Amino acid sequence: MRIIIVGPPGAGKGTQAKLIVKDFHIIQLSTGDLLREHRRQETKLGQAAIKYMDGGNLVPDEVILGMVAEEFKKPELKPGYILDGFPRTCPQAKGLDQLLEDRGLALDHVLVLEVPDSELVRRLTARRSCSECGHIYNMVFNPPAVDGICDLDGSPLIHRSDDTEETVVNRLGVYKKQTKPLIDHYQPQGVVRHIDGTGDMQDIYQRILAVLK
Ligand code: ADP
Ligand code: ADP
Known about the structure:
binds adenosine-5'-diphosphate, 46% helix, Rossmann fold, alpha/beta, 5-stranded parallel sheet, globular
């Protein structure tokens, strides 16, 4: 199964992707996570990405496509994957079409999570994630048992440098201008599924399951 999950920052892409991965035994490929790993390891790519990410702007398409093409070589992706945060522009969608075509593959679903802006700002400013395993928390909606500590592995939680109110507002604008139009790119393939991304996380997951099964 090959899925794309699209939605504005804070829509719950990462949260829902992790639930899907567990049930369907496929891999989550998050370009945001890959970029943060590059930054952590201080690679050239990571250092070049800092100014875009911290300003809430997109990293150039050719950088992203090069990074994804490398990932696509990995055998772990054979059983299927959920692409989280990629593609984010029409040129990236075309690049992905080419990667899939080269392998004789097609997408099964493009899940579009719909959440109003006011809710996104509330979610993102309270988002925290585990510095080691990447598990996602929210100080308001799903806090860890012990403040600042991951329930799963006891590591400290971090607040992403781009989850500030100012950057979030820019990221929402970038989503509307550069990412939302790519939903139209997938319409002719008949794979676009709109999902109501509001309410309880498990209820949203049930809506996704209804579409996937
Ligand atoms: P969120 O899920 O909150 O939208 P991500 O973790 O997916 O955030 O992405 C964080 C930042 O990383 C983005 O604001 C952007 O700067 C960069 N980024 C991630 N994926 C892409 C992509 N496919 N194209 C361009 N930039 C990206
Ligand atoms: P994205 O990957 O789309 O940027 P995340 O999955 O990281 O979004 O979720 C953003 C924040 O919102 C996190 O703090 C997460 O715990 C929280 N969150 C996710 N889904 C919900 C929901 N249904 N209700 C409330 N908060 C949520």
